[in-house]
Sequence to fold (295 residues):
Amino acid sequence: MDEPRATDPAGMIAQLERLLTVEELDRDLFRGARQPEGRGRVFGGQVIAQALMAAVRSTDAERVPHSLHAYFMRPGDEQVPIIYRVNRDYDGGSFSTRRVVAFQKGEPILNLAASFQRAEQGLAHQFDMPEVAPPEDLPSEAEERLKVADRIPERLREFFVRPRPFETRHASPWSPLEDRPQEPVQNVWFRAVAPVAGGPEMHRAMLAWASDMYLLGTTMRPHGLSWTQPGVQTASLDHAIWFHDEVRVDEWLLYAMDAPWSGGGRGYNRGMIFTRDGRLVASVAQEGLMRKRAT
Fold:
């Protein structure tokens, strides 16, 4: 029986933690729980996060993931659990490499490669965080969505206003309806709506989950498109994350995104994730499908 969807902050975070805690079926074989969203296909961030957690389960605890690269092959069916098979490709003195294939109904839906490193000291530098308004000075996205809910098609409305496990506040010009061209740049504050009980591996998995939010929307901004408009077709094609440092997703993080290019039905997006005090903890890149079909 499906677990009823939680709507209170603590319940939503506990439910997300359970979703991302994969079940071990056999050595290097795991099952990820399903969470029906009413959209038909699985949220890409969920598949990436569960695949990462499967890779973590096959690696020594002193080695932590520093990068992952994923390709989406088929849309996931939210009515079916996902099976993750891990291949232990390499274990060296400092690094380990894992490949993960996610399956549904015998067909692969995602390939993910992840690299792990034993902690060491080294030369360091980073880009500065963009200068933006602090989250306390910005409206909640959830509140902004409620203001325009009556203008959303009825078939999308319930999902549009549904409570989410991450609170978000936009530090760049933004509208829930996004119907006019904007610069292909977004700065979004986000944090989990309640404390996360899990350890560093859960915070990294939740960061991977959240990294799929907004990124593809950045490349849609110059074209005045949003997923609420008829005829708009979007999907993630690939996704890469570099983990630079430890992170807590239940504290404010700034997701600074840009989209340098689009064409050929695809859009390319980049992102940097900073802590409140300006520490760069992760970088992200993604290419996505973006089409506007005649209606």
Remarks:
- The CA atoms of residues 122 and 131 lie 28 Å apart.
- The first helix runs from residue 9 to 20.
- The mean pLDDT is 94.
